[in-house]
Batch of 2 targets.
Target 1
Amino acid sequence: MKLHRSSGHLTLAIALLALPFIIDALFGHGWVRIADFALLYIMLALGLNIVVGYAGLLDLGYIAFFAVGAYTYALLGSPQFGLHWPMYVVLPLGALIACGFGVLLGAPTLKLRGDYLAIVTLGFGEIIRIFLNNLNAPVNITNGPQGISAIDPLQIGGFSFGSSYDWFGIRVDDVHLHYYLFLGFTLLVIFVSRRLEDSRIGRAWVAIREDEVAASAMGINTRNIKLLAFAMGATFGGISGGLFAGFQGFVSPESFSLMESIMVLCMVVLGGMGNVGGVVLGGVLLVALPELFRNAAGPVQQMLLGKVVVDPESLRMLMFGLALILVMLWRPAGIWPSTQRRREFDADDSVLHQEQETVYDASK
Amino acid sequence: MTPPSNRLLELTNVGKHFGGVTALADVSLHIHHGDIYGLIGPNGAGKTTLFNVVTGLYQLDSGSFQFAGQSYTRCKPHLLAQAGIARTFQNIRLFANMSALENIMVGRHLRTRTGIWGALTRNAAARAEERATVQRARELLEYVGITCAHQTLAKHLSYGEQRRLEIARALATEPKLLALDEPAAGMNATETVALKELLQKIRASGVTVLLIEHDVKLIMGLCDRVAVLDYGKKIAEGAPEDVRRDPAVIAAYLGGEAA
């Protein structure tokens, strides 16, 4: 059994290592880049999963932490201030600052629940974006809507992830190198998520999601545990943001709109709230499918109708909405829900409930 | 007369208002170590309000309360749980989508220490603590008499089992005082007998019990002392037999003038 499992892990590891080359060979260079973005989004979604999936706190401004991480990296590693701090300083610093912002958002909103929390977090996300957009006067910090460009690539010592190398006759490009870097970070985030989920802290998060009053009556310090959820989620967002800035080489407030927050939330909800595997799947699907659609929509129309009737870009959002509705109708707990959530949405629940009521009535 | 040192919980002139409504007025009572203390009264008499004050869900407006010799007049629920008061709820509030075992494991939160670092590294201390938590949770399930699969979700348990699971979860916090809000509500006769036996077992283990209940037979057969509330005031207190004959109590329950 153990042997079986470890051989399964080995297969998975080889598949993940070979993946960028396979994608490159089959679909071309651009798709490796899309895979890199998918990994960044997965990290984001996993961070949000801690806040929304485990602790049940609906956060609609999550992208703000991504922005904080990205701008930290951009400001400390670009010609903007002439600072070129190394990645191993800036990335943890970005994560730390994002974590601080997580606590900053968490602290005043502790008493809010559900819709009210959603609205406040939404506002927070917008505040961060608008700040970044306007912090170019009177003192120019963020360069405003123009954003910051010529950001240092991700590099450690002399080794840059932004260059191409020839190793043993195999050409390894920057998109491949970034893939491996992001993969490492994603695996780390997955590891942390799963360890926390199955621990005293994780149980406390779920208890708060299930019934906050009962949780506090059981001795859980709901304030601290909720703040911890915000802080952990924000930290993942900050790491992802720093990597994004280094990868892209350019950041502007435009990348951190409300739409992005909702996109990440969709990954969590669609994939399967509270389940790490489901969230990863949600991230992959929501990055890959729209791209696929963008590439396919034009040619298919050309083929069937002889001309492009509807702009592929707008059609993409239409199909995206349709997919959301279909999933929510047929798999309300997500495509790959956690066992807990699946049981929550079980169809035979209502039957069981009725049975219990009959027993209850009979006992009176 | 019992010396004050034997008093586990002591309420002095407790008052609580909601807007213009007086839910509790000048209620004073004390509970001795090792007793089962009953709290009865007609609907809306303020029993649950008193409960919520004692467990920190409400902050009292006047008066004070002491637990185990310390003042907890303004205190958060989790600190009172820490001090040793655990409760159940009138309308069951289990973690519905967690298993029976996990529900009790949450109750162990207070008496365990594993933090982020322990959870991430799963070091020897964290593993040992997790094992002990599971072990204790299993024992408690057995203790309250839930024999079904431990992985069953709380909401899929039978009504009587849910009531007992709530008690087990409260016991997991290692309370000095166990406060039960109508634990027999909705139970049939057999389940009530089983509950009575369980409560006697809990008292024998040294835990003091505060009990709100409508089932007068259960209260009379179980409690050492009983207090009666009506319209937020304490109208009688004492041994069950005495309280039962008290004219004010009869009036409160049957209405009109005391016979």
Target 2
Amino acid sequence: MAKKKALVQEATEAQAVTETQAEIAATSTEAASSPSVATEAAPKPSNPPKAEENLREPAEVKYAEELAWLESVDTGNKPFSWRLSPRMIRTFILGTQPGEKLARKIDQKFFGDATLVERAIVTLASDRGLLLIGDPGTGKSWLAELLAAAICGNSTHVVQGTAGTTEDQIKYSWNVALVISQGQSRDSMIASPMMKAMQLGQMGRFEELTRCTSDVQDALISILSEKYIAIPELSTNNVVFARPGFNIIATANSRDRGVNDLSSALKRRFNFIHIPIVTNKKSEREIVMFRTRDLLRRNNFDIDVPAVLMDVLLQTFADMRESAAAAASDDQRLESSLSTAEQIGVLEDAILYGNFFGEKLLTANALARSVIGGLVRRVPEDLSVMNKFWHAVVEKHAKENKKDNTWKEFSEGGKSIMSDMSK
Amino acid sequence: MPQPQKSRTIAQDRFAPLRGQLLAAVQAFSQGTHAIDKMLAAIVDDMERATNEPVEIFPVAHHSPAAAIQILRRLQDGPTPKVIFVELCEDLQPVLPGLADCQLPIALQSFATETAGFPPDWSPLTVVAPLTEFSAEFQAIAYALSHPEQTQLVFVDRSVDHIFQWLPQQEGALAEALGHSEDEESISEEADENLHGTAYGVQMGRMEPTFEGFQEVLLSNARVRHFSEWWDQYVESSIVGADYQTYREVMCLVGSLIRRLGQSKERLENDRKRERYMWTRIKEHLAQHKLQPEETLFICGAAHTASDVDSFGTQTPHRDPIPPRTQTKWLYGIIPSSFRSIEQQFGMPDGAISIAESAWKRSQEALGLRSLAIKDIKDTSQAKPAPKKTPKKTTHPIDPTNDDDASSSPIASISSVPDVLGFLQRPPQLLEQDEEQLLRWCVEIVSMARENGYLASTADAIAIYQTAILLGRMRNRHHPSPYDFQDAAITCLEKDRTPKKRNVQRLCEILLGGDRSGHVGYSSLPPLAQDVYDRLSALPVTLKGKTIQRALMDFRQNPEYSACSDLLWRLHYLLGKNNSLVRPIMGERNLGQRALQESWDISIGKYQAPLIQLAYEGVSIEQVLERRLLQYAFSSKARTVQALEATEDSLLYLEARRLTQRLGEHANDLLVQELAADAAQDIFERVRRLVHYYRSTPEGLPPWLQHFVATGYSHFSTMLPEAFSDRGTSPQQISGMLAFIFTLESLALSMGCERSQLMIAIKQSASLTQDPEKLGILWAAEWLLSVRDIEEIRSFFDHLLENPLTLAAFPRYLDGFLLALTFTPLVSRLIVELLSKAFERLPDQVLMPWLPSLLMGLRSHSNTLLPSILQEVAQIYPKTSKELDAWIAPWYRERRKRKTTIPTPLVQEIRPALPTLSNEERSIFQIMADHPQTTDALAHLFGVATTWRSPETTETPASSTATAAFHDQREADIHAILRHHPQTTDALSSWLGLSASWPTEPTHTPSALVSAKPHANAITEYLEPEAAAAAALLHHHPQTLTALVKHLIPNPQSV
């Protein structure tokens, strides 16, 4: 939850910054994205919105150098005002393949089916919006951010959908003070992130689309089909047209599907792409390591997670998913969706805990503590589910792997924290 | 014919630039050039060698439309080959004429149930070689069959037998070899659609690399998901339109590359064996028929063109020995196949074959060719002179009328279009049809989606088209492939949920052709299958339909259907319960029952394969059934039960009295040899069924069954003592034996058996076992034989319950009695009594742990034993809660009643000392003794007449009197104690709401008693207050009870 909130805040902050960033991006794409600019800006300590100082950098800043390089070698056809050709975007997101004749290696950033990414890119080049749908924690928002960063170099035109989102936040609102003093004009109007994206011909992002009420969602219909927003309050200059390159990347949670179903008119204007939960252990390991490293870099340390512990974590999650799938009622399964993102959270938590309070090295005990601390949300339901799981499955692993002490330690750690919690 | 010399020089010149480019590529891309350098050079060498071979080698890939198109053009336009050698198992060739009445896809099948020399767990062995219309081998077969005078067809690959010979001869090896297809099967949801079963698939020109690393790199670089997609995109689509020579060269190059890089070692070794085999066979054939190699065509997988075996090519005389076959008897036939089955068999992605089919149709249209089909074969069977069909309008460059020496052979004619390198560098030509096809797909998928509940419109068609093009571009394709189209359709149409049964993926598969299954026509069917078709034709269903047909049969209206029903039941029996061919929906076949109506689901049209397989075993269903039954009953492992089962089945499904008798006699023979009793229960049930059935027939029991019963009676009787003493024989088995003995006793006695045999056996058994369960059974049997008296048993258990040390054994005895229920329902009352006593008297610490096992034990008998127990319980226990208050168990009641019904003289002897008997009562007794009818009637009402008049009691008056006396004595003592300590009883009665007066006994005049006679309840009422009070008292003050019991029974009487 905390993370989500941070993201919302960040998004709103970003809105303020967007103007400048977008302008830079629009006027001189080269300058904005070249690494030299970024490093030049860094030494000035007085300015608050410095790229290096942000808690979390958007993808276009983080991979600015890589994007700029890709752009410089890109010879493919670029649709609209895209910075990169579709093939380059795929390379940016999925990393280089051995057959590609690129001079440098690009790391894989999204781990999933290549077809899925290709379909997403192609959708954005077509007339329709893109709706990424999937369980929480499957990387929808991350893919959306990467796509926006690669296509237009700005992933911060974000509207966060909540139950309280209003049409104003999708279209525009008014600066009341200015309206009183100067009357309604384009100057006193506050454009929404969507409108800004339209004006700049960039990607607008809509997070958690299904959390909004249906009538608010429907505000997107005209944006997606007519590609303009009318401002009836003004008598002149009252239509904001989208420039080529504008499109919308929305994400929706398949668990909350029933909350506010999309109207069929809106459905028609989106291509749905289902992002599945990663079940392949190998790629899940890669994702967890990739994201955890990434997150820990914020705290300026890098840590090597022992392979055994990684196995323990992945196995535990796989087992938990299995038992959750087998459970008959909601009371018998954990509230958590047990997604990859949860694993990342658990691992990060364990590492941070070990780093700040324990030995520097990650131990099985600390991992167990984080697993339980992170996943037990409802007491007593979750705790009893976890208790059952721990004694049935984790204990079994501990007994089977006698040679290796890790499982045993892991199991003991879990038991001790559970007994603490149940006091 | 062109001289090989000449074409070689041309070829060498031609291949130089190709070599140059390959070497340049090596230098540009790799550091250590040696290995790759050599390999790439070798690829070109391979190609050169293959194209220079005098036998015209035609390289193919499996189910490749391009190969089919090319062979079609070659056969229509080139010189007619005298012989076509085909890489297919040589022993499959004889079944080919059967193709005439089939509908593709079908599969040539070879089948063996009994194998010689192979590991036993392999059998049955099946091999299938699926044929589709768009495969080069089928086109060649069709050509050869329709031009029999000009062209001879020869299959040259190893025989079916060798396939299995060459597998490692271990238990699991076959499963491993089949592993691939089995995996696929488990993934597929519609596994039952696999028409091949667990067959070993043979396919011509299998190209898929078996070396995983190579395949991985290949696929990830080409951005495809599956090898067949790669093949389709990079090879297939480009060579379809190529000229003949280029086609051969390109295929040789690809084949050589895959053979040299992409194959695993085992596969290579297997390939070499086959190549030696094939070339040896080719040379043999050429020598035998004195043919020139140039007059022949050899169709083989592209990878075989790069063979490195010594016998490759007709220019070397080297031949290899052909290994002999094993003794296994192989049977051959044609079974229907389907695209989906082929995909599953060979691990192709879903829809791959459908896509190949659509490519085949498209290229045929584009090139103006007409394929050879099965009907061409049929034409020749009508002995038409088979002239070449008038040449079709073709757009290909070769002019068949050109008489020039160089161009009469397609090989030479191509040398004027020499540039294979140029071909490889050019992008493939886009066929107009491709574009049109894509548009058509876009429109059709939208309408299909709409039919399936999607909200799809023209806007979606546009979006799909656009997306498909974009995807194709992004994946580096000249034109979107069907796979791109599929992705695009899913992207644009699939929303958050699937509205109806099918999702867009599935719709796309259907659109691209869908599954198609073949059909073997009537005249191609073996006699057994034809017979089945003939006999079922009376039914109002279409047997050739691919759908499931429901046949409703009313035998009263249509008596002729009963023959069909017999046949269906036989089929159902032979094919197993879970077959998809015939399934009974309503109606069942039991001994002695004849259904009036039946309904069946018949889908013989779709699943012909099992029927055809059945036909390998005999010429009619009855014959196969008879053989199966005899095999089953006479196999070395068969025991009595199996023989009886076969006998019963023969009665059910075949009206063959002689067979039944033979089987029954065999069962009798087996029974005599039987040493263990483990199947006793089963034997008993089967024999009982047979006896019941035969009794209902006019002929009565057949001799064999009478003999069987007699044999069984004496056999089981003899075995009883051993069974009781043998710890390995379970109580269940003993109860089965006794069930046989007792249930069929009368019959056996009539056949000359003696009961004394049983009596001796039972008496002998008594001393042999200590096992409580077996004892329980034994006592029940003894009781039934009047060797043991129920009172004896009862008192034993009373005694058992008193002693805390023996309590634990009680449940096990009870289990024994429960088992005895299988042969006599009489014990059910005793069981209920014992159970009730157990609940009443067992302490919690014994009762509780036993309860679960009791429940589980009863549950396992829920069908057989429980009903009779429940019936008994229902009789004994009160039905309403009101009655419960005033209820005592009959076994206690009996005791009371005995007191009231004991003849006066006896009572007078013993009872004078009792203070409770008033004069009045004595007079009652007197009256009752004088008029025993009343009491008898009463006793009869209660069903407890034993102590009064039963012969046992009369025979042993002393003991019964003693018992009665004892009981009366005890009650009197209780009365005395209660009287001396009235507080307890007072408290109790006030608590119960009774008056605290102490009558010696409730007074009743004889007349009252007599008037109560018709109302049996009155007597119970008379007894009740006291009994209820006592029971309640005992319940509340267990100390009193213990004291009482101790006082009364210092030394419990043992019976």
